[in-house]
Amino acid sequence: MQRRAVTAVLAATAFLLTAGCSSGGSGGGDMPSGGGSVSSSGAAPGGSSSRQAAEETPSAKGSVRVVRTVAQNLKTPWGLAALPGGGLLVSSRDEGTITRIDEKTGKKTELGAVPGVSASGEGGLLGIALSPGYAADHLIYAYLTTDSDNRIVRMLYDAKKPAGQQLGAPDTVLKGIPKGFIHNGGRIAFGPDGMLYAGTGESGSGGLAQDLKSLGGKILRITPEGNPAPGNPFPDSPVYSYGHRNVQGLAWDSRQRLFASEFGQNTWDELNAIKPGGNYGWPDAEGTSADPKYINPIAQWHTDQASPSGTAYAEGSIWMAGLRGQRLWRIPLKGTKASAAPQAFLKSTYGRLRTVVAAGGDKLWLTTSNTDGRGKPKQGDDRILELEVS
């Protein structure tokens, strides 16, 4: 696959961290691939310089403290959503179930299984999100792989029914997202505008990422009913940005700017500041490119240090979970640029890390992903952790 070379010397605003050891191999989603250095670049698009200058820049030095283990012995956890009245919902990629966790006691209550889930490779029951009107409609949205495609559905959650029978029949919101053994994307989240955003993968067919008629290799933006959202950059299309390889992390900062994490192939994983209609280069560009028609990442990592999945925003920084990298990355922001070198925490302490969710203030929820077929499960895996960060 043709890719533009990464520039040998980054811009003067770049920050470098010490390189890790490479174990080689070809990249595929969170499959093993190359290794090397970490960098962040000021080359991303974003808000005006006057807006950025007025923003407080977080400290270059952050911290992470594991407060406690919230739950353990979970099977292939993938999506995570916090209920407004207390409790966490977690999806199981391989079992196709959604379970409620009492965040105080760790007690598990299975809501039920989502019909139609086909779990193979990187596919299955993936991201989940609560309706913006959840207090009134009690709807759960889910991104899942079927025998024919990836799709987004929504289901009524009725906690008054017996355990295992609390999910209503799924209503398909959007279908036809390409599926593959690898690169199924899967992260969904409602944005500050009330629209539903979805990170998709190119299913192993890199050309789909540049094809505006395909839903693969994109960030999509749709209404809660599944229609192209008003104001989208391409007429009558759910496509919000394109040229992505496999997006699995979506997060908004305090000024409602969207950031997304993306798997690279052999060289560079990325954190991108997302611009409506922006082309992020895949498969012609992996990491920083000299071609002005592609938007460069604000930070990039060699794939043995990241293989990023979930992202969240807290305390002025993006927090990014690493699968193969087995660490939690902090990327402090000023506007839509990294204001200092990314910092790594929890390296190899809990194994593969899948999903990170803001829990309010300086708290995060973090899930491990050691039972996904690529990790080495330890006693108690997989688990949900509560973190305190700065």
Query: Which sequence of strands runs across the widest sheet?
Result: 1-2-19-18-17-16
DSSP strand tally: 27
Give the termini distance in whole angstroms: 40 Å
- Write out the CATH superfamily name: TolB, C-terminal domain
| Rounded average pLDDT | 89
Task: Give the second-level CATH assignment, the architecture.
Answer: 6 Propeller
Give the DSSP E fraction (strand runs of 2 or more residues). 35-45%
CATH domain fold name: Neuraminidase
**In CATH, what is the class?**
Mainly Beta
Low-confidence stretches: 1-37, 42-53
Reported for the largest beta sheet, the result is:
6 strands, antiparallel
Structural class from helices and strands? mainly beta
Globular, elongated, flat, extended or rod-shaped: what is the shape? globular
Q: How much helix, percentage-wise, in residues?
A: under 10%
Number of domains: 1
Give a topology summary.
Layout: E1 15-17, E2 38-40, H1 49-53, E3 64-71, E4 77-82, E5 88-92, E6 97-101, E7 108-113, E8 125-130, H2 134-137, E9 139-145, E10 150-156, E11 171-177, E12 187-190, E13 196-199, E14 218-222, E15 239-242, E16 247-252, E17 258-262, E18 268-273, E19 299-302, E20 308-314, E21 317-322, E22 328-334, E23 337-338, E24 343-345, E25 353-358, E26 363-368, E27 384-389
Folded structure, characterized:
- It is globular and about 55 Å long.
- It is 2% helix and 37% strand.
- A hairpin with a 4-residue loop joins strand 9 and strand 10.
- The protein has a single domain, classed as 6 Propeller (Neuraminidase), CATH 2.120.10.
- The longest helix is centred in the N-terminal third of the chain and has 5 residues.
- A 6-stranded antiparallel beta sheet has the order 1-2-19-18-17-16, with no helix packed on it.
- With 390 residues, the protein is mostly beta strands.
- It has 2 helices and 27 strands.
